[in-house]
Write a structure and sequence with these properties.
By secondary structure, this protein is an alpha/beta fold. It is built from 16 helices and 21 strands.
């Protein structure tokens, strides 16, 4: 068997190609950012063709840097930004306009119409998801409503829908020349179109959103051979597919019910393994599929989704130009001893878990003449930790499990100030793994299991090791005071729209 496993990590801001060895070490890595389009407030788009071309570039770059060939790669796993919605013509291979990104809020009227009909509780019971602009189904309806010319192509069976996993797999396996049109259960569970219990497209949801079943990909497991590469790499099995947060859960080897991971990226996403039965949240969390290995039963999760985490640091860098690069935020925040009583609630796309308020918009509160750039930087970092605390509180109530430690990953975990404050505000140890690229690693693990590169999950667990741990060091009086003011700040975002 070839020596290595590869993963394509198609994220919100960039696409990466990473090759791992049997111990989970990185042997090749290439990355390329893509453009973010903001046509109007609350609207976010990506160019699907740019993302596909970047995918080709990073595969080429990673293979060239490492000197590897197709024969060295046992299989490829795919992981992706979830909910980002693309429609394309399967004959021409061209998208019908830009992809609508998960953060986009243009479907608020579609969601409100269903909400006003009293359908939200039924939809959550059926799909595990709250009725929100976050998910793919309303985005598909918006695209179909806004592009009536697509209807003729649907009648000719020429139109495909996919999130980014489906788009990449279809292109890698031939595109217009026989490309495989599939999505795995984790991505399907983010559409508002899949029955969370049967793991099949739900006809009632399709009828509500007026979406033809013919455009939907076939739902498959997270670990099986879907097809073989026809672009760049020659005849390599594509054998793993997981939404990015589920991939991080798998890469963090959270295989036991009650285990939790939190990923700090563009957004912030906490997942708890709840076993083989879905738990419908009563506290603002999502019920989602964590993974499904071949013919095994699906494993479910509770998830808390935060829209803006690392994106707030980017906003400080790009929009306010307070820092030159993202890594500058920690030294700037360390120039002050606390937040100066400033709180930033980054509800740029509304509030996600546990509130699900599409009417919210971001606020900065507590400003005085005393406040300087350092306080703003510190408030930016602390906002991610506060939002994580809110999600964890909800998760502990829903699950009945008290967290003993939090496994963390993602780009922001290099920030010691943030991670220490996270441990302090949670009053729980925070642990970073030896291998930081857990999202790509999870996709690689799924692919490797499918082709026998790894024999079982026990082998994967032996690869996990602790790199660093942050221990709480804050009094309960200070912790509760800070958190109380955060909760007050959140209420200031309500009903802006």
């Amino acid at each position: 068997m070839p020596d290595f496993i590869a993963a394509i990590d198609q994220g919100t801001t960039s696409t990466r190609f990473i090759v791992f060895d049997h111990e989970g070490n990185i042997v090749a890595n290439d990355q390329k950012e893509h453009k973010q389009f903001y046509p109007a407030p609350g609207l976010v788009e990506h160019d699907g063709m740019e993302i596909w071309n970047n995918t080709l570039d990073v595969i080429n770059g990673g293979m060239r840097k490492s000197g590897l060939t197709s024969e060295d790669i046992s299989a490829i796993g795919i992981t992706n930004q979830r909910e980002t919605t693309l429609l394309w013509n399967r004959i021409t291979g061209r998208p019908y306009g830009n992809a609508i990104v998960w953060q986009d809020t243009r479907t608020i009227d579609i969601c409100n119409e269903l909400f006003e009909k009293g359908l939200a509780p039924k939809i959550q019971t059926k799909t595990g998801l709250p009725l929100a602009t976050y998910f793919s189904g309303p985005k598909i309806k918006w695209l179909l409503d806004g592009h009536p010319e697509i209807i003729d192509d649907i009648a000719r069976n020429e139109v495909y829908f996919g999130n980014m996993d489906t788009w990449i797999i279809w292109n890698l396996t031939g595109g217009p020349h026989g490309g495989v049109h599939v999505t795995d259960v984790t991505n399907a569970s983010r559409t508002l179109l899949m029955d969370i219990a049967t793991l099949a497209w739900d006809q009632e949801m399709l009828n509500l959103l007026e979406i033809p079943a013919s455009i939907l990909p076939r739902i498959v497991s997270s670990s099986e051979i879907y097809g073989f590469t026809r672009s760049v790499l020659e005849n390599v099995p594509i054998a793993g597919d997981l939404g990015d947060q589920q991939a991080a859960l798998f890469g963090q080897v959270c295989f036991t019910p009650g285990e939790v991971k939190n990923t700090y990226g563009t957004g912030c996403f906490m997942l708890m393994n709840t076993g083989t039965e879905p738990v419908i949240s009563k506290n603002g969390l999502l019920t989602t599929v964590g993974y499904k290995l071949g013919n095994d039963s699906a494993v479910y999760c509770l998830e808390g989704s935060i829209a803006i985490a690392g994106a707030l640091v980017q906003w400080l860098r790009d929009n306010l130009q307070m820092i030159e690069k993202s890594s500058d935020i920690e030294p700037l925040a360390r120039t002050v001893k606390d937040n100066g009583d400033v709180y930033i609630v980054p509800a740029f796309s509304g509030l996600f878990a546990p509130y699900w308020r599409s009417d919210s918009r971001g606020v900065i509160v507590g400003l005085t003449r005393y406040v300087n750039r350092g306080h703003i930087a510190r408030a930016v970092l602390e906002s991610t930790a506060y939002q994580t605390r809110e999600v964890l509180d909800a998760m502990e109530i829903d699950s009945g499990v008290k967290l003993t430690s939090l496994k963390v990953d993602g780009g922001m975990v290099v920030n010691d100030l943030l991670m220490q404050f996270q441990a302090d505000i949670l009053n729980t140890p925070v642990v970073k793994p030896r291998i930081a690229e857990t999202t790509a690693l999870g996709a690689a693990y799924a692919a490797g299991l499918a082709v026998g590169y790894w024999q079982n999950m026990g082998e994967l667990a032996t690869n996990w090791g602790k790199d660093k741990e942050w221990i709480p060091n804050m009094s309960e009086e200070i912790r509760s005071g800070l958190y109380s003011k955060w909760k007050k700040a959140v209420t200031r975002t309500f009903e802006w729209l």
